[in-house]
Write a structure and sequence with these properties.
Blueprint (H helix, E strand, L loop, with lengths): L1 H23 L6 E7 L4 E6 L8 E8 L7 H6 L4 E4 L5 E6 L7 E10 L2 E2 L3 E6 L2
Antiparallel strand pairs: 1-2, 2-5, 3-4, 3-6, 6-7, 6-8
């Protein structure tokens, strides 16, 4: 009897965790693409699916040795950059004042009201 209860409790816990992950991933992640890389900067393109175009875009750039942040951590970070999408499904963004020959990862999310997209990532190495 204890084993059945323990297994049921474990399954229920896993279902709760899956539901919590779905809250963050309700919108599709933005698509990120490198457009230009130099020694101290890079530019990337952002494509947003239709559902997120009236939302706000958040991105955070950090060296690849750091842990991947959640969508909520990106949105709440003092180091994140953000802008309103204003109905645009395509934008570009730049990151400057970087170290040369360094591996960076861009992490991005879209917020539409209280809903956050899945986290997108893009790896870039400066020249």
């Amino acid at each position: 009897m204890k084993r059945i209860f323990s297994i049921s409790l474990l399954i229920f816990s896993c279902l709760l965790i899956a539901c919590e992950e779905d809250v963050e991933g309700g919108l599709n992640a933005p698509l990120l693409e490198v457009r230009g890389v130099q020694a101290d900067r890079f530019t990337f393109a952002i494509t947003i699916e239709e559902d997120g175009v009236k939302g706000r875009f958040y991105y955070l750039v950090q060296t690849t040795d750091k842990a991947k942040p959640s969508a909520q951590e990106i949105k709440g970070s003092q180091y994140a950059t953000s802008f309103d999408l204003n109905g645009a499904d395509f934008r570009t963004a730049s990151m400057s004042s970087l170290n040369s020959k360094t591996n960076y990862t861009v992490y991005a999310t879209v917020a539409l009201g209280d809903q956050l997209s899945q986290v997108a990532s893009l790896q870039v190495t400066t020249q």
